[in-house]
Design a protein that fits this description.
single chain, Metallo-beta-lactamase, Chain A, Oxidized Rhodanese, domain 1, 3 domains, 22 strands, 20% strand, globular
Length: 474
């Protein structure tokens, strides 16, 4: 029997490949499915099942495409939702044979009502692992406020109560030596404060995870699990509906997006279709020269998450600026969160635009040393900290204004177009996104601080608030 975790850092998401005696199962696959098919083919195995732990909100699963390409059976936990494709709606306790091993569906409502875990028994019948989806993370549990954005009469309190019962009645009675394999790790917005670890023994989680403490009452659990929650990104409910109803094939999405456009064609389409120009280069390169009104979300970061958070229309037509050779990767990452309407990329990138003598803009940047000298000269300098609220309250420059990127429309209200602001995040990725969006909206006086708060703190040249350990990373 083989169990392999396939972890994708930009989504903090774990998919799983399980194989026994020539039969394979995939749990919570990503949108691009060729890797799973190739994995099975190399091992002379046939993909028999695609197990979905729930209707995901933070990404579009690859279950529909994978079923079409492999002939595998899609399996969900108990649900009354009207699903837009052929699948099996399993029952609590239902056993699915996989070669000489088996997986048992354990219905664990709470994160969502259909949420289910899959308990793996090896060829000897020993319970070896449990794939917990968003029910149980390492160090945390799934937030119970997401399903109410799709089903109105589901309150977060009702879901939290279900989650408490699921953990105690279905998960905690299992053996301590079982390995817990969750759907997410640190960086996911599906939980408040997830561990960087991506697996653990259930026994250790019983000792260390607050949600599994034996003396925790239901009332205390509900209060704890609901505290510190921030509104989920707007794309979450849209991804849920795509996962329920189905979507365009990833092959079609890639074909639509990988159209090389000349400078003239790119410019014409941008004007005719009101397409968003998305520049995915590193922040440092973007700052030097970019197409007017384009925004920067670098591919070398939490790209998909920030696209979903900051581009409100999931059907927005998008024109791309990418580093050479990364066009298909960018389109694939967009599709992971349901942005299927990339309609082409600038052939030759920004260099072609500059060679054609087209107008460019830039965003000024300063080093931490230059920033420190400027603050000495003017203690009332305007500082924007665009990190999350939880990061800001953990520690920040005294007198800095918190203007979180994830709520940019509210944050920009604090910005005066006529004043100069020095913008930073943790390391420089988010601050450039923030500056680029405001630049496209007519804010011309933002200066990016290279290195972000990490470099600011390390310089020891600024007055920083005392550190307070955050209780949530949302």
């Amino acid at each position: 029997m083989k169990v392999e975790q396939i972890y994708t850092g930009c989504l903090a998401q774990g998919a799983y490949y399980i194989e026994s005696n020539g039969e394979a199962a995939i749990i919570d696959p990503l949108r691009e499915v060729h890797a799973y098919i190739e994995m099975a083919e190399k091992r002379n195995a046939k993909i028999k099942y695609i197990f979905e732990t729930h209707f995901h909100a933070d990404f579009v699963s690859g279950h529909v495409d994978l079923a079409k390409k492999s002939g595998a059976e899609i399996v969900f936990g108990p649900t009354k939702m009207d699903i837009g494709y052929t699948c099996t709606v399993g029952k609590d306790g239902q056993v699915f044979k996989l070669g000489d091993a088996s997986l048992t569906l354990i219905h664990t409502p709470g994160h969502t009502m259909e949420s289910s875990c899959f308990l793996l028994k090896d060829e000897t019948g020993k319970e070896t692992a449990i794939f917990t989806g968003d029910t149980l993370f390492i160090g945390d549990v799934g937030r119970p406020d997401l399903a109410q954005h799709v089903i109105a009469d589901l309150t977060e309190e009702k879901l939290a109560a279900h989650l408490y019962d699921s953990l105690r009645e279905k998960i905690m009675p299992l053996n301590d030596d079982i390995i817990v394999y969750p759907a997410h790790g640190a960086g996911s917005a599906c939980g408040k404060n997830l561990s960087k670890e991506t697996s653990d023994t259930l026994g250790n989680q019983k000792k260390t995870n607050y949600a599994l403490q034996p003396n925790l009452t239901k009332e205390a659990f509900i209060k704890e699990v609901l505290s510190g929650l921030m509104p989920p990104p707007n794309y979450f409910p849209k991804n849920v509906l795509m996962n329920i109803n189905g979507y365009d094939s990833i092959d079609e999405v890639i074909d639509r997006g990988t159209k090389a456009l000349s400078v003239a064609a790119f410019e014409a389409i941008a004007e005719q279709k009101s397409a968003l120009i998305l520049d995915t280069r590193n922040p440092e390169e973007f700052a030097k020269a970019f197409i007017p009104n384009s925004i920067n979300i670098g591919i070398n970061g939490s790209f998909a998450v920030w696209v979903g958070t900051l581009i409100p229309d999931i059907k927005q037509q998008i024109l791309l600026i990418t580093d050479n050779g990364l066009e298909e990767e960018v389109i694939t990452r967009l599709a992971r969160v349901g942005y299927d309407f990339a309609i082409g990329y600038l052939d030759g990138g920004i260099e072609a635009w500059i060679k054609a003598a087209k107008e460019t803009e830039s965003i000024p940047t300063v080093t931490v040393e230059e920033f420190a000298n400027l603050e000495v000269q003017n203690p009332d300098i305007n500082i924007l900290d665009v990190r999350k609220n939880s990061e800001y309250y953990s520690e920040h420059i005294i007198n800095a204004i918190n203007a979180p990127l994830d709520y940019i429309n509210d944050s920009m209200v604090q910005v005066d177009k006529n004043k100069t602001y020095y913008v930073h995040c943790a390391g420089g990725y988010r601050s450039m996104i923030f500056a680029s969006i405001l630049k496209a909206r007519g804010y011309d006086n933002l200066i990016n601080v290279n290195g972000g708060f990490a470099a600011i703190k390390a310089s020891e040249k600024f007055k920083i608030t005392d550190y307070i350990c955050p209780t949530t990373m949302l």
